[in-house]
Amino acid sequence: MPEKDLAQVDAEVFKLIDEENRREHESMRLIASENYASRAVMEATGSCLTNKYSEGYARKRYYEGQAVIDRVEELAISRLRALFARTAEGAEDDIHVNVQPYSGSPANLAVYLAFCQPGDVVMGLGLPAGGHLTHGHTVSITGKYFKSVPYGVRREDHRIDMDEVRRLAKEHRPKLLWAGTTAYPRTLDFAAFRAIADEVGAVLAADIAHIAGLVAAGVHPSPIGVADVVTSTTHKTFRGPRGGMIFCKKAHASAIDRAVFPGLQGGPHNHTTAAIAVAALEASQPSFVDYAKAVVENARVLAEALVERGFGVTTGGTDNHLLLVDLTSKNIAGKPAAQALDRAGIVANYNAVPFDPRKPFDPSGLRVGTPAVTSRGMGKAEMAKLAEWIDRVVANPTDEALIAKVAGEVKALCDAFPAPGLRI
Ligand code: DSN
Prior knowledge:
CATH architecture of the largest domain: 3-Layer(aba) Sandwich
Helix content: 40-55%
Strand order of the largest sheet: 4-10-9-8-7-5-6
CATH superfamily of the largest domain: Type I PLP-dependent aspartate aminotransferase-like (Major domain)
Bound molecules: D-serine
Radius of gyration: 22 Å
Largest sheet: 7 strands, mixed
Structural class: alpha/beta
Number of domains: 2
CATH topology of the largest domain: Aspartate Aminotransferase, domain 2
Shape: globular
Mean pLDDT: 98
Strand content: 5-15%
Number of strands: 15
CATH class of the largest domain: Alpha Beta
């Protein structure tokens, strides 16, 4: 008798997945860190590779039976190295890749473990200015076990203040300097970070989780070959499975590898590794460069359209895949706006804006990203429509009839742009 499938074994989970599949189809997903993985990526993620334990690295494992897994991991590594070498500084031979981190935060922890001792000074962009928790925020282990000195953005233009980075670095002599963001709409100047790290003898780590796809496609400068180590997730603009990866110079290979395993993790998630290999192959195609360019162009067009409608957009626009909308001029906070938009099928997240006078759980802004809608093939016309819907909903956040009408229009547009990977 054939084995039962999910719907037969567990109708409850099957139904939940089906509902999420529909929600992802019917909504305009604007969360800057989300995307649609392809059917091929998801097939690899849902494969028998999930069954295998393989502590260690290819050809140096602690369990037998690795004939296939070693090839999977080596394939993922060689594809990533070749892909990212295209836009990196320096030789492909000097790029070491580790594909085992379970996600971005474990990848970042591996950097601390490889280079720092508890109590060392570390510097990163402060969370309220658009940095990540793991770059030394007080509530994170990285802010508790290390002495964190955050830098910020300039009050006048909300761009990273490299003069402040240099001043703080000279004063505090960090062991580790992070260049990386989660809610920052402008290009990072990795060369300037490198110069500061060299002045003070710091290890430079770049976290490209948000922009990995843009870096691979050459539409954002690459820190690979510039920074000592580069961490990333694999599921944001890179459009792979939920996972992590680390690139570093060969000189740091064994420190990074030992930090990931056995320092922090046990067996790698081999099904994820295979899916990362698939995503790397997809990102190597010329069409991926077109995709990454379209992500940035859509964000630029959306920012312009929102500015025309009287929204504040921090820094006045964007160079990458996201924009940070300041709703102060619209007399609404980020949270009620995000909730009303969600009811209209437009899914973003409320977010602090730089120097936000409001509390982090009830901030002034919205973070809006274009990676997922661009994966559906949406372009300038759809961004203009999106700006109009956002404007209508934000101006009438309690008008449920209007919100229902917008939700219907959103669904009709989504029906016309089927997303990769979903089953509709
Ligand atoms: N949660 C991710 C984001 O939304 O940016 C970062 O870890």
